[in-house]
Amino acid sequence: MRLRRYSRVLLEDLLIDAYCGVFTNMLQRRYGWDRAPLKLVNHGAKLQLWEIDVERSRIYETVQRSGLAPLISCSHRVASRPMLSAFCERWQPETTTFHLPFGEMTITLDDVASILHIPITGSMISFSQPLRVDDANALLVELLGTTDVEASRETEQCRSPSVRLQWLRENFSTITDVSSDDDIDFATRAFLLHLVGCTLFADKSATSVGVVYLELFRDLSMVGSYAWGAACLAFMYRQLTTATRFEVRQLGGYLTLLQAWIFEHFPEMFSSPDMAYIESRPRALRWRPHVIPDSLQSLRERLDRLQISYVCWEPYVDHRAEHPFPDIAWFSGCIKCGLVVEPYHPERVLRQFGHIQTIPPRPFAPPRPDRSILLDQYWERWTDHVLIDHSRGRRCHYSGESVAEYMAWYDRISHRIVQPPHLRSGFTTDARSSLPSHTASTSDSRNARALRLLRHVISGGRQQSGDYFWGALNEAHSILAGSDETSASHSTPSPAPASHSTPSPATRPFFCPPTFVYPPPASVDPPPVAVDPHPSSPVAPPAPAAGPTASTTVYVRSKRKKKT
Prior knowledge:
5% strand
């Protein structure tokens, strides 16, 4: 019976934590509360912890044949949170493009090839189904030479079919050319898995990499036959799409690609070039990574004021002698990375290819990942699915040229300005008075009243009664929604009704805890009455009901009396 009482206390604690998160999301969504810059998953520094020197030349030869060797040197160790967060806010998942004040832009296959110098043609990376933990353990034993116990222990620690990057370094970084051939193959696969986990396929776990990619390195002679650049781009698209969700707080993917793309196309705003760069190296090495000193707020305003003249539409003109333009960049279809399928629309960003931008067709939805065979065949015949000359249009007479009706169409389908007018810097009181009344009151008095009210709830923590908690949330919602027209000095919630019956849909409050039916407690000493942690609050504790089924909010440990 004690376990039953403690389970109820734990359940109420979990409900309070969960509904606090729901309440915070509601405030941010409905009333313009800002979201902090995203946390970035960047492993640029971890690549230096596993060096491939002359004692490991056989491993480096395989890495060079795979086409992934440039990733070792071109990864940025520093990434700017405000800058990447500001661009992420302008990402549109339906079109897989950034919506800027003058039109759309995106990362293309040409950008990937020029910035990273990794192959963008070859076989598509495909997986038939998600990898299970048992299958992951079998792959680790077969391809890395670990024991069943070590593999099971590692996947259990990751709680997924993944392995830690640190575990790969600790177990395989000491293998050299004097080791056996099998050990060298194991170390080569481990290094390649570590490399793609730190770069191309860096996920939000920030410490591990999926074992599913180990299957790509089964045959080390075939690692150079994959379209690594197309898979990296599809994975980056999906990470940007995920980061646009309001509840997401992290951004994964290969951030060096995204940051270098911003430096290339907006050099006057963000970049810091390296004067010692030569064109035979990847373009990611052209820039010295640094943290942008501006805040997220100021970067939003800078992007809102961004003019087309500040954009470098064709940044790789000087790079074409060493790295010609790839025709596959005109491919129009779907790109894939395992079970991640994303649309690729070059017709929406013709200005990045030096052509006049026309009104593009409607974006197409990607097919299901289980149709991998059709997608692979579509990609293998990419020459049949590139944009024809008519769809590409004419060459630009000047950079950033578009047809006359393009901007009128763009205004109908998108928003040029992201920052609300009353949140911009330099917004005066006279300009505020021109806004609708509900905007000014929400950002001033109602927010202040709701915050004063919620301070009592936050300071009370888990020791407060459930009735007080739900009453505070409902009253704060009524203040922010404008339905409460009481004086601004009212800062504590009214007492919640003692009855926990579920109200009708018409009268149900905005925040209402789920209704649970608890079994009657055993015949033990009655628990003490719930005490309000805020003595100054007018909330009275709920009156206990009569009978053996009475329940209260707070339960404490009670001892049974010994029978004499």
